[in-house]
Write a structure and sequence with these properties.
There is one protein chain. By secondary structure, the protein is of the alpha/beta class. It has two domains: 192 residues, Rossmann fold (3-Layer(aba) Sandwich), CATH 3.40.50; 180 residues, 3-Layer(aba) Sandwich (Rossmann fold). Helix content is 39%, strand content 16%. The chain has 14 helices and 15 strands. The strands form three sheets. The chain has a seven-stranded parallel sheet with strand order 3-2-1-4-5-7-8, sandwiched between helices. Strands 11-10-9-12-13-14 form a six-stranded parallel sheet, with helices on both faces. A two-stranded antiparallel sheet has the order 6-15. α11 links the parallel β12 and β13. α7 crosses α10. The protein is elongated. The protein starts with 18 loop residues before the first strand and ends with a strand.
């Protein structure tokens, strides 16, 4: 057992509040950042004391600050940003958290090095991507630093980590969760569709995703061009922003898609959009789990999705939706057209999906995360002040 060092925070007793420092390095608002905020809300509601270290100008910091969470501004300009490493170490010494929880690759890099200067808290990493850990010397160094646990959001992410040589003993699968409450509120679907300009006979396939390479919207555009032959009233709406916007607009023009495919940009009204749509489509070739899919299922939408990462863990093929191979516009087009032409099947799949989504609530994610913290604090009761080598090495052999 490791003894706590000078200035160590005493391990919490049963039922006592936990001080948790969440570290997220992203500036944009994406699924990972939503997960951090959902978790922090539930931790505070349970009586714990979550803090956030993040770029002060980022979307997560702004939202957390607006909700009254303590936010520590750390620029996190790069994986070797010495100033940010020292700031994180300073925050850790001042806050004396029981747990430090990293939520993104850069946050992991900076946080792991800060932990060498300010050892002590139990160290947890959330891993949300299903691609292998890079084999570069920098990644090997990073994954060679001690850590107590990696919270993988799906079995697909677990498999990718283990394939990279990360010890399975350190991995816990804790699926991402969504807030179910907004989908239970009364909703006038006909009025919402009319306000959005959806004609009564149109079938809207919605995607909510960043315009990023792994989301593969090029595949979706090509599928849309093929699908309209068999489903002329099908419309595809893409809600999201990202670096590929101009390239995707150029592809849209080259395919002559016109109003059949609309780019909606970043939207705050995602829940009403989902509840007004007819089906949901995911075209990714990499996906850790897919909380946008969970949102769609909670809204009662059938899902057409690629069978990648953790997606088959939430979408039952031919039960709650249709699964197709990645980067296959023809298969994606056939699935979308098939559902567009079968309202009874859409309704049946959507109903089953709504029930399935209840198993992936943010409350359940928070409870599982709290259980992981308690397990680790029980194993490392003198966690603060531990020498840098006190945890297990997680890197590839």
């Amino acid at each position: 057992m490791n003894a706590a060092g000078p200035g160590a925070a005493a391990p919490p007793g049963a039922g006592e509040p936990l001080r948790v420092l969440h570290v997220d390095s992203e500036r944009t608002w994406r699924g990972g950042e939503r997960q951090v905020l959902l978790l922090m809300r539930r931790q505070r509601d349970a009586g714990d004391q979550p803090n956030l270290a993040a770029p002060g100008s980022g979307a997560l910091a702004a939202r957390a600050r607006a909700e009254g969470f303590p936010v520590h501004s750390v620029p996190m300009r790069g994986a070797w940003d010495l100033d940010s490493i020292l700031r994180l170490a300073s925050v850790t010494r001042a806050m004396r958290p029981h747990v430090v929880h990293w939520h993104a690759a850069r946050a992991h890099a900076l946080g792991a090095m800060a932990a060498l200067a300010a050892p002590g808290p139990v160290r947890v990493l959330s891993r949300r991507v299903d691609f292998p850990v890079r084999g570069s010397w920098g990644s090997r160094l990073l994954y060679g630093l001690p850590i107590e646990a990696i919270a993988a959001i799906s079995e697909g992410v677990r498999r990718a980590l283990e394939a990279s040589g990360v010890s399975g003993r350190l991995i816990r699968v804790i699926p991402s969760g969504i807030d179910l409450a907004p989908f239970e509120a009364p909703f006038d679907r006909a009025a919402a569709r009319a306000s959005l300009g959806i004609a009564p006979d149109e079938v809207v396939a919605l995607q909510v995703a960043a315009l990023a390479p792994h989301k593969s919207q090029t595949t979706l555009l090509r599928a849309a061009a093929a699908a309209v032959a068999g489903a002329p009233r099908l419309r595809v709406w893409i809600a999201g922003e990202g670096g590929l916007r101009e390239a995707l607009l150029a592809e849209h023009r080259s395919l002559g898609l016109g109003e059949r495919v609309r780019f909606l940009g970043f939207r705050e009204d995602v829940v009403p959009l989902l509840r007004a749509a007819d089906l949901f489509v995911l075209s990714s070739y990499l996906e850790g789990l897919g909380t946008s899919v969970l949102d769609a299922m909670a809204a009662g939408l059938p899902v057409v999705a690629t069978a990648v990462g953790g997606v088959p863990e939430i979408v039952e093929d031919r039960g709650t939706g249709l699964l197709v191979p990645p980067r296959d516009p023809g298969a994606l087009a056939a699935a979308m057209a098939g559902l567009a032409g079968d309202p009874a099947l859409r309704a049946a799949m959507g109903g089953r999906g709504r029930e399935r989504a209840r198993a992936f609530s943010a409350d359940r994610t928070a409870a599982s995360t709290r259980a992981l913290y308690e397990e680790l604090l029980g194993r490392f009761p003198g966690s603060r002040g531990r020498a840098a080598g006190g945890g297990e090495v997680v890197g590839p052999p």
